[in-house]
Amino acid sequence: MTKEQILADLDYASSIAKDGANTPLLGGPIGLMWGCLVVPTLIAHGAIMEGLINLPQDKIGFIWMAYGIIGTVIALILGRRMDKKPGSQSLLNKVGTALGISVSILIFTFAITTVISAVLNNLPPYVFNYILVFAFSLLTINYAVLAHLSRYTYLRIAAIIAGSFMTISLLMVTQNHVYFVAAAGVVLAQIIPSLIEIKGEQRNG
C-alpha cells in the first residue's frame, strides 16, 4: 500500500467519523410515533389477559392489527418528510433508516410466524410474549450500532436499557404482567431517546 493510499484511507475514515459525530439523527418523530402507539397497545394486551378489560382474548389480534396498520401509514408519511430534511443522506441517517426498516420487518415477520406456529402447533398463549423479547433484542442492536457510529451517550444508555428489558421480559415470559413491564421499557428505551433526537434535530436545524 502506497503512502497516498494510506492518506486517502485516513481521510475517508476521518470524514465518516466527522459525519457521524456532527449529524443529528432524524428518526426521532418515527420512533416517538411507534412508541406512543405501542405503549397503550401493550397495556391493553396485558389488561385483557388479566381480565381488567372485559374483552375476549381473541380480540387482542385485532388491536395489534390496528396498531400495525396505523403505524405503517404514519411511518410512511413521516419517512417522506424525513427524506427532504438536511442531513437525511448522511451516513448516520442512512444507517439509521436501514436499521429502522430492518427491525420493523423482522419484528413483523417474527410476530406473524409466531401466530401461525401457535395456531398450527396448539402452543400456549405465553408463546406470544417472546415477541417482546425479540423486539427488545433488536432495539438493543439498533441502538448499539448507532451509538458506535455517532458516539452519542444517550444511545449507549438506550442500548443498555433495551438490553435490560430484553432480559426482564425473558425472565417474565410466562406472566401476563410482562406487557405492563414492556410498556415501561418502551417509554424508557424508545420514547425518551426519540424525544432527545427530536430536540437535537431542532437545535441543529
Describe this structure in words.
It is built from 7 helices and no strands. With 205 residues, it is an all-alpha fold. Helix 2 (28-50) runs antiparallel to helix 3 (60-83).
Q: Counting H and I runs of at least 4 residues, what is the number of helices?
A: 7
State the helicity in percent bands.
Answer: over 70%
Question: What's the Cα radius of gyration?
Answer: 19 Å
Tell me the strand percentage band: under 5%
Give the biggest beta sheet.
none
* Total beta strands: 0
Overall mean pLDDT score? 90
| Multimerization status | single chain
Question: Which structural class matches the secondary elements?
Answer: mainly alpha
* Low-pLDDT segments, ≥5 res: none
Shape: elongated
Distance between the termini: 41 Å
State the order of secondary-structure elements, H for helix, E for strand. HHHHHHH
Supply the key terms.
mainly alpha, 7 helices
Per-chain topology:
Blueprint: H1 3-22, H2 28-50, H3 60-83, H4 91-121, H5 130-150, H6 153-171, H7 178-204
Helix pairs in contact: 2-3, 2-7, 4-5, 5-6, 6-7
Gist of the model:
Helices cover 80% and strands 0% of the residues. It has 205 residues and is an all-alpha fold.
